[in-house]
TrEMBL record:
Chain ranges of the Fe2OG dioxygenase domain: 215-309
Protein's organism: Sapajus apella
PROSITE patterns for the chain: FE2OG_OXY
Keywords for this protein: Dioxygenase, Iron, Metal-binding, Oxidoreductase, Vitamin C
GO MF term list: dioxygenase activity; iron ion binding; L-ascorbic acid binding; oxidoreductase activity, acting on paired donors, with incorporation or reduction of molecular oxygen
Top-level taxon of the source organism: Eukaryota
Gene responsible for this protein: OGFOD2
InterPro entries for this protein: Oxoglu/Fe-dep_dioxygenase_dom, Pro_4_hyd_alph
Entry-linked PANTHER family: 2-OXOGLUTARATE AND IRON-DEPENDENT OXYGENASE DOMAIN-CONTAINING PROTEIN 2 (PTHR24014:SF4)
Name of the protein described by the UniProt record: 2-oxoglutarate and iron-dependent oxygenase domain-containing protein 2 isoform X1
Listed cofactors: L-ascorbate
Length: 350
């Protein structure tokens, strides 16, 4: 008899190696399939942003080729880092690796999650328990973690940052931070947060975006500090939905700003600014254009969870806006899944 209940195999779209490559120096996301295509598609805008000389262009070309190669190796290298960290890293705050407990969560968040999972819960009742940042943009705020848990998590992250363990970049736009699955925090922290608490909440807030069908995530912490990353350019997330929680520390500046959905031609007209509050999370659609204003003083650490629903993204990749060309990947990949073959009970046929 064919076995059932095998772990799902997650994939990425092949466009990961060619689409949305971020060039920080020119503040631009580009598609890259070779020199001629780059000149044809982006020559004028690159020149307008300072890529003028032959040396400028050759330097950009080398950077993009290097980034493509990094992305091709990413899954295997990330798995190798995770294995080394698991075997050699000595944690500072072991309690953050325990299975997520209610004591780590803000009472308001527990109440929201409990209501969302209760019989008869509806959007109107939920919105009475959340702060609506923008009704038009469907952006909401809710306390997520207690102050002691934020402090413990920050201490662990700083301890890891100062260690000699290998570290992967959170994404192409952030140079400082931590990938939580590599640190071993996916299973005890992020997965139960998604499955037990965020799923019922997002099902009411964003049923049209796969909020009730979340089956994977990508979680990372980003750090902003003077002399390091200060701001974040405008972008949209490779996710159906996003939770962004301010963990600390003490800082000024760095507000989030939001435009419209990335498909809209006037998406950045009159952006909405949202200040961070430590311990509180901002909920928004992954396709909402957003960025972060420059940090003025201090350090800012934020936990970002990209929430993904394969039932949505299997139909259309949000990064290339085409049917995904699936490539097997490690872990949750980029949240895509292959259609599972029908399970056949061989014994019943004999």
């Amino acid at each position: 008899m064919a076995t059932a209940g095998a772990p799902r195999r997650f994939c990425r779209c092949a466009c990961f190696c060619t689409e949305n490559l971020y060039v920080a120096r020119y503040g631009l996301h580009v598609r890259f399939r070779g020199e001629q295509q780059l000149r044809r598609d982006y020559g004028p805008i690159l020149r307008s942003r300072g890529c003028v000389s032959t040396t400028d262009f050759q330097q950009l070309l080398a950077e993009l080729e290097q980034e493509v190669e990094r992305r091709r190796r990413l899954g295997l290298e990330s798995a190798a880092r995770k294995a080394l960290i698991a075997s050699s890293y000595r944690v500072a705050r072991p309690e953050v690796y325990d299975s997520l407990q209610d004591a780590a969560l803000a009472p308001e968040f527990l109440a929201v999650a409990e209501y969302s999972a209760s019989p008869g819960a509806d959007l109107k009742g939920l919105l009475q328990r959340l702060e609506t940042v923008s009704e038009e943009k469907r952006i909401y705020r809710v306390p997520v973690f207690t102050a002691p848990f934020c402090q413990a998590l920050l201490e662990e992250l700083e301890h890891f940052e100062q260690s000699d363990m290998p570290k992967g970049r959170p994404n192409t736009m952030n140079n400082y931070g931590v990938l939580l699955h590599e640190l071993g925090l996916d299973e005890p922290l992020v997965t139960p947060l998604r499955e037990r608490f965020l799923q019922p909440l997002m099902a009411l807030l964003y049923p049209d975006c796969g909020g009730g069908q979340l089956d994977s995530h990508r979680a990372f912490v980003v750090k902003y500090a003077l002399g390091q990353d200060l701001e974040l350019g405008c972008h949209y997330d490779n996710a159906e939905l996003t939770l962004n929680v301010a963990l600390g520390k003490v800082f000024t500046g760095g507000a989030l700003y939001f435009g419209g959905l990335f498909q809209a031609p006037t998406a950045l007209t009159e952006p909405l600014e949202v200040e961070h509050v430590v311990g509180q999370g901002i909920l928004h659609r992954g396709g909402q254009l957003h960025g972060a204003r420059p940090l003025a003083t201090g350090e800012r650490w934020n936990l970002i969870i990209w929430l993904r629903a394969s039932a949505v993204r299997n139909r259309l990749c949000p990064m290339c806006c085409r049917a995904p060309d699936l490539v097997d990947d490690e872990g949750f990949g980029d949240g895509f899944t292959r259609e599972e073959p029908a399970t056949v009970d061989v014994c019943a046929l004999t």
